Amino acid sequence: MDEDLRERVEREAEKHALFNALEHGSDAEVGPIMGPLMGENPDFRQHGDQIAGVVAPVVSRVNGMDADEQEARLEELDEALYEELMAEEEEDDQILPDLPNAEEYDEIRMRAAPNPNGPWHLGHARMPSVMGTYTEEIYDGHFIVRFDDTDPETKRPDLDAYDAILDDIEYLGFTPDEVLKASDRVETYYEYARKLIDAGGAYTCSCSGETFSELKNDAEACPHRDKDIETVHEEFDAMVDGEYSSGEMVLRVKTDIEHKNPALRDWVAFRMVDTPHPREEAAEYRCWPMLDFQSGIDDQLTGVTHIIRGIDLQDSAKRQRFVYDYFDWEYPEVLHWGHVQIDAYDVKMSTSTIIEKIENGELSGWDDPRAPTIASVRRRGIRGQALVDAMLELGLSTSDVDLAMSTVYSNNRELIDDDADRRFFVRDGVELPVSGGPDVANPPLHPDHEDRGTRDIPVGDAVLVEEEDLPEEGGKVWLKGFGPVKRTDDGFEHTDDDLEVVKSGDVDVIHWVPAEESVAVRLRTMEGDETGHAEPGYAEYDEDEMVQFERVGFARVDEQNEDGESVAYFAHP
């Protein structure tokens, strides 16, 4: 092998070794790179018995570089191969699939369309998590939040829910580019209803619900279907003016009265509602659009390119397409997903159920730890990113999916563990006098961060320990940060044992607090409230700070009371 060929082999081997190491995040190996090396360079094959000997030291040299050096060298040697690697990494990092036909749109525009009939339960977090990620992180698109609040009776809007929902979206880490309320846009819906009437696509109908249902199921046309356009306009204007009561008149979209799916036959676009809307700006309206009409018009006017909706709402797209066809509009791309089911809660994940339990006193509010709501996990100290990451991992399956709260807890633990100081909390402890040993205990503030130092816990004359940690008389335990003690008739007596008794498994390490100077704390959990005492230093934390109660779990400081009981919310183990 001459020198020129050797240099070529070394150069080609180096770039393949770099690619192999970076792609797998580990040391490159000679075997896996020989295939592509020989395949791309057929003239190397006649020197096959010598190639491995040239490649081996190159691979060794590559493995001696750190990842940054490997990336820089690969980009220098072969920019195309480097870009291929970066594209693979980007694809691997993208949890969500690409949106269909995304490349055909100048801008990806998606909308979350909440009904503000109450604050959000945990299932609602999936919508902004996915759509916000697509528009803000993957496609640099446009994220719309549109409140679909055109049902002032059955799903009556809660005036506090509008801001609460926007606050939840911010907690999850997203900022809408545009916020709309459908109840501000009623005149626009009237405008397009009149255009639809002009196009021969809608008619007013005074049939009772029962009568029309029979006609529809028999694939028979409503007797009002062939009204002249002028009459339809007059009667629709009367609807707008509030001249009909609930149930007296509706506006229907003309579809196919013989359509194989009865649910799509001449569906209702507008109906009369006697109950005033709770928003003052919309309280005078009595003629309200149905969701399929309102949502379809808004999606077109706001330029929505991609819609994600529940698999149970497949008929919505089919209904709306009739309207789009009348106006010669192109329907957005549609994806469907199944429902999210969440474990760990006894309360059904339903807005109406949660409202009922709050009203009858079974829950203290939307942020009760037992409620499967965003407000609840937020008050417990769970970061929005932990919830978003768990939702993204569910993907876009059309089947119902299960979200384990343990996944959310694991995500949150990674986010908060480094910053959360360690403290002791004893639940309804047993008091025992202590004799001997140091006056002050010095356990670390964080076991993984020695630079933070220790906390000083005055021992005093007695300590509190949890009953299940109490050894039998004559037995020993190790009070963490204080040392070994033996239980006697008089309480705990410090001994001279060293850590070997712990390492050998003969003595358990337990948490404790001083009996005199500890802080009374009520810990609110999903199973109910627990009372106990925290070490004195706990009083130094501000509300919203996170701590880890050793051997208990992470908790968020909720309320500090110098003269009474402080309150903390249990997050998770």
TrEMBL record:
Subcellular location as annotated: Cytoplasm
GO molecular function terms noted in the UniProt entry: ATP binding; glutamate-tRNA ligase activity
Any one of the GO CC terms: cytoplasm
Keyword terms of this UniProt record: Aminoacyl-tRNA synthetase, ATP-binding, Cytoplasm, Ligase, Nucleotide-binding, Protein biosynthesis
Keyword Aminoacyl-tRNA synthetase: yes
Glutamyl/glutaminyl-tRNA synthetase class Ib catalytic domain span: 107-415
Signal peptide: none
Pfam family name, one: tRNA-synt_1c_C2
Catalysed reactions, semicolon-separated: tRNA(Glu) + L-glutamate + ATP = L-glutamyl-tRNA(Glu) + AMP + diphosphate
Enzyme's top EC category: ligase
Bias-annotated ranges (Basic and acidic residues): 446-455
EC number(s) from the headed UniProt entry: 6.1.1.17
Tagged with keyword Aminoacyl-tRNA synthetase: yes
Residues annotated as domain Glutamyl/glutaminyl-tRNA synthetase class Ib anti-codon binding: 420-490
GO biological process: one example: glutamyl-tRNA aminoacylation
Region listing for Disordered, in residue ranges: 435-456
Domain spans labelled tRNA synthetases class I (E and Q) anti-codon binding: 509-558
Segments carrying motif 'HIGH' region: 114-124
Main location: cytoplasm
Role summary: Catalyzes the attachment of glutamate to tRNA(Glu) in a two-step reaction: glutamate is first activated by ATP to form Glu-AMP and then transferred to the acceptor end of tRNA(Glu).
Record family assignment: Belongs to the class-I aminoacyl-tRNA synthetase family. Glutamate--tRNA ligase type 2 subfamily.
Protein's name according to its UniProt entry: Glutamate--tRNA ligase
